[in-house]
Structures are given as structure tokens and as C-alpha cells.
Amino acid sequence: MESSSFLPTEHLTLPDHPGVYKYFNVDNELIYVGKAKSLKKRVGSYFNKNTGVNLKTRRMVKEIKRIEITLVDSEFDALLLENNLIKKSHPRYNILLRDDKTYPYLLLTKENFPRIFPTRKMIPKKGTYFGPFASVKAMNTVLDLIRELFTIRTCKLDLSPYKVAEGKYKVCLEYHIGNCQGPCVGLQNEEAYLADLEQAKHILKGNLGVAKSYFRKEMQFHAENLEFEKAHKMKEKLDSLEKYQAKSLVASPSINNIDVCTLVSDDKSAYVNYMRVKNGALMTSKNVELKKKLDESDEQLLLTALIRLQDQFQSDAEEVLLNIELSEPIEGLNVVLPKIGDKKKLIQLSLKNALYYKKEKALLLGLNEDKKDRVIRKLQQDLSLTEIPDHIECFDNSNIQGTNPVASMVCFLNGKPAIKEYRHYHIKTVVGPDDFASMKEVVGRRYKRLLEEGKPMPKLIVIDGGKGQLSSAVEALKELGVYGQMPIIGIAKRLEEIYFPGDSYPIHIDKKSESLRLLQRIRDEAHRFAIKFHRNVRSKNAFGTQLTEIPGIGKNTADTLLTYFKSVKKISEASEEEIAGVIGTSRAKTLVEWKEKNKGA
Questions:
Q1: Which of 134, 218, 426, 481 lies at 20 to 30 Å from 298 by C-alpha?
Q2: What mean pLDDT comes out for the span 289-310?
Q3: Using alpha carbons only, how large is the chain's radius of gyration in Å?
């Protein structure tokens, strides 16, 4: 690697060789760093008057007073060096990743009986760092798995041999509950401890296959030696590892070690999603925004983001999947643009995240809108809807052990409840507690009625429930011939997962997002309305059954009372004269006598 310095007028002496160039202004301030396959052609293009460079580039060129170059062996090396220089100096005209977060790592300490714990500070002398992780949740998931599989100590004791030999320590609660094997009192030797730690390191690196093979061999060994209890423990650990992999699986396990990077852009910015995948499992997913400085091409922006993100997340990927074709292959960078199969699905998944991030950023620009419009516009962005959901209808079922099944529909206009538009339904065609069939019935009845009356359809239908309830609602819309005319989603209660018809994987909206809070409010309102109606129906039915058991009070008389007084409570509070005005003196007297007799019962 060689470095040289030139004045701008001397650029024709530059070599036709890969390298990095640095531009300095009159104050000797570094204002731009670039990389090139041919320094002579690339740097020369800035000063060629026949080249139609844009205004921002011309402004930068006017500031250049000195150029430094560094020769490297390949264009890929130039990419890496450019990244390091930009990260160190943040030149004014270079593309910057708009991301000032510090990310969590897991540190494997350098000490006797090493520990594993989370940190956001990297001090290399303390041990080996794994990560960074795109979120604390992702990091904790891996850490919890490791602590489930291995007995790694969590205490901060100095477990050097002479300290342990002094016998100053006592086992703690972690030992008694089985999370530690007591190395502090010599109950576990360091060799066995490090053997477990070696398998934990494979998991931290994403090499789950190595750890699975280890547990499988241990299980077979103990079984052959008739140590069935130990063999069973190894099987449980293997099952835990396989469940973890199954949860994070996004592609075929045959996809070993790849990075995925996709980009979408507009006039001012580019939006990039970067994913690391090992053994078909998603290890990292990160979105970043790049502000354009000199009208850079999408190819240049994507390469810049890829190299910086690979450096940030310490990638050792053997292959990179992109959604943009490079004008020329780059030696040292194995790039693939998949057309079919699991790798193509990964590109589509990454691109979906990049588009979502772009829409999310675009929404933030509309902060001058009032809150009402902002929330429903945010919901539009989060759900990728073609229209603003200013008319939302949500359905919920209610029954207890199959009795008195009812359903509700609540309506929100411009993000606010439209109580006059609320509807409740008695389930008519379903016998027993069948939530799916009940949902199909009420959705069909609602939109059949709207079609017959020529009233506008909602801009979004929300189903309180998961895939089953959503599929039932979709069937009703298909039978009416209106499926596809308005979007429909299901919202599952437990994890607040959003399902679209036909999608295998749910969407997770940020828990702090205003749009998710709006969906939760609508869902909760539908649930409240359904429960209230169900209680009324159940109470009426129970009281109506009691009424019909009174001599002289039949079903028609009970229905007449409930219709007039509207509620059971009002009937119980009514005087004999009021009741007589509805069902006559004789029946009223009979009813009042029965009420007095059963008061407090």
C-alpha cells in the first residue's frame, strides 16, 4: 500500500491502478474520500470540463486544493479502506449513514471460568466480543438460549486457582437452582467449563450445526453407557436448540452464510435493509438511511452501505445477495442477484423491509399535519395501504362456553369512534362455540347489508383474532364478491401480531407507534362493545327463563317487558303500577309478588 500527494493540476500523473483518493480544501480539511478501480480515470473525471457533473460536485471541486492517494491491490480493498477513512473523519461531501445508535454486544471475558454478559462498550483487552446485535431483544434471545443450554456463571468472583483453593467462597442461589455447577468451591473443573463455552461460542457465531452435532454425540454417548438421565438432558438441550433455529428460520437451512442488502431511493435519500443469514436463520436485520451528497448512483450507494454495515456487524459472509446489478464485478466480493428460489425470497423480504422503512421516513416528514391525520397516515404507511384508512370497521365475537353467542362491529371515522355506526349481532346460523363460523356470518351480514343499501365500504377491516378468524372473514367477502376491494387484517391479542390474508409471517409494528395504539384502541373498543352486549343478552335470557317459570307469565309477556323496560335492572326497579301499564293488572300483581318472594335469593 503506497500513499502520495498531488495538486489538482497534476492529476494526469495519477496511476491507472485501484486505490483511494482524498480531497483537502485550503484549510487542509479533508472534504471527500473516494475509491476507484482506476485512480487516473476516476479522479480525472472530476476535472474534465467536458463531463456534465452536477452543481454539488462542481462546488466541491472548486474547494479542492490538494489530493492524496493510496494505492491498494484491488477494488474491494479500496472499498474497505474508503470505509475506514470515512468512519474516522466524516468528510463533509461523503455519504453518511444516518445512524447514531450504539449497539449491544455480548462479551466473552478473558479470565478463569470466563463469563458472557451484554455491553455497549468495546474494550478489546477485556475479551472477545460477539455482535453487534440490531436490538436488545435479539441479543437477550441468544443469551437466554446459551444460559438454558450451558451452566455459565454470572457472578463477578475472581476464580483464579489460588482464590478457589483458599475456600473463601460459598455457592450461591444459582448453584442451588441448577444454573451453575459451583466452580467457586471447586465443584467444576475449568476444562469441562471451557468445553461448554466452546459450544456456546459456536452459537454466538451463528454456527448452530456444530452445537447440534455436539449435543447429539453426547446424547448417544450417555445412552450407550446406560446413563439415560444424562442422555435425556442432552436431548432436551438439542430440542431447545432446534426450536430456537425453527423460530428464526427464514429460508432453507442449506443457505449457510450470506448477507442480503437491498436499496430503494428517491431524489434526496436512499433506504437500505441489511440482513445476515446463517443456516437459513436470520441473525441480524438493520435499516439505514443515506443522504445523497453528490447525486450518487444507486449502485454506489448500495456498495457504500454494504461495506459499512458488514464492517459494523463484523460479517464474515461468503456471499452477498443484492437487488441491484453491479456495472462491473468486484474482485473479492462474491455478489449474486438471485432470480428464483429461497435466495430470491430473501431479497423480497429484505426489499419489503427497505420499502417499509422508506414509507416510515416519509411519514415523519408530515409532522405539520394535525395529530388525527398523522396517526391514520402512519397507519397507512405501517400497513402499506393504497388509501388513507379514514373509515375503519372492526369485528369481535363473544360467548361463554358457547352460550348466547353474539358479535360486535365498531366503526372509527378519521381515527375517532363513530358510536352511531356501531352494530351488534345475534349469531343465527352457528350452533355451539364456533368463533370462525360466527365471524364469517357477521362479516357477511354486515357487507351484504351495505351493498344492498348502497353505502360506502370501509377503507380497512380489522378482525380481532389470528389467522383462523381472518380466513373466515375473507371467505365471507369472497362469497359477496368484494374481496380485494378493501384491505382486511387480523390482529392477534397475545403478541399484537398483524396478519394479512395469505401471508405466512405477521407484521410487527413498533410497540410505541401511534398507529399500533390506534389499532389496539379499535380492537379493545370492539371487545368492550361485544362483552357488554353479551352480558345484556345473557342476563335477559336468564331473567326471561325465570319469568316464564311464573304461572301466568309466558314467553310473549317476558319479551314485552324486556322490550319496554330495555333492561332487567329497570324491570326489577319498576313499581306495580308501571308494570301493570305494560302487561295488565293481574300479571303485574303476580310478577310483583314473585319478586318480593325471591328478593335476596
A1: 134
A2: 85
A3: 34
Specify if 415 maps to a domain: yes
Phi and psi dihedrals of 562, rounded to 5?
A: -65, -35
The confidence score (pLDDT) of residue 458 equals 94
Of 334, 364, 394, the one marking the end of a domain is 364
Whether the pLDDT of residue 501 is over 50: the answer is yes
Residue span of the structural domain in which 78 resides: 2-94
The answer on pLDDT for 245 being more than 70 is no
Shared-domain flag, residues 384 and 516: yes
- We report the CATH number of the domain holding residue 570 as 1.10.150.20
Confidence class of residue 451 from pLDDT cuts 50, 70 and 90? Answer: very high
User: How sure is the predictor about 482, in pLDDT bands with cuts at 50, 70 and 90?
Assistant: very high
Q: Which three cell numbers stand for residue 329?
A: 464485478
Residue 282 lies in a domain: yes
Do 395 and 490 lie in one domain? The reply is yes
> Residue 369 pLDDT > 80, yes or no?
no
395 shares its domain with 522: yes
What is residue 4's DSSP assignment?
Answer: E
- Alpha helices, H only, 106-189: 136-149, 161-165, 173-176
Residues 529, 573 within the same domain:
no
In a shared domain, residues 243 and 261: no
Q: Which CATH number belongs to the domain containing residue 334 in this structure?
A: 3.30.420
* Confidence grade of residue 473 (pLDDT, cut at 50, 70, 90): very high
- 231's torsion region: left (phi>0), alpha (psi -120 to 50) or beta? alpha
Query: Which of helix, strand or coil describes residue 176?
Result: helix
Per-residue pLDDT averaged across 148-172, rounded? 85
User: Among 443, 440, 417, which Cα is nearest to 430's?
Assistant: 440
Looking from the CA of 270 toward its CB, the CA atoms found within 13 Å total 27
Specify if 55 maps to a domain.
Answer: yes
Contact indicator for 23, 67 with CB cutoff of 8 Å: yes
Give ∠ CA 543-546-552 in degrees, rounded to 5. Answer: 120
Q: Which three cell numbers stand for residue 307?
A: 461495506
Of 245, 303, 251, 252, nearest in space to 274 by CA: 303
Residue 19 pLDDT greater than 90, yes or no: no
User: Does 421 map to a domain?
Assistant: yes
- Indicate the number of domains in the chain: 5
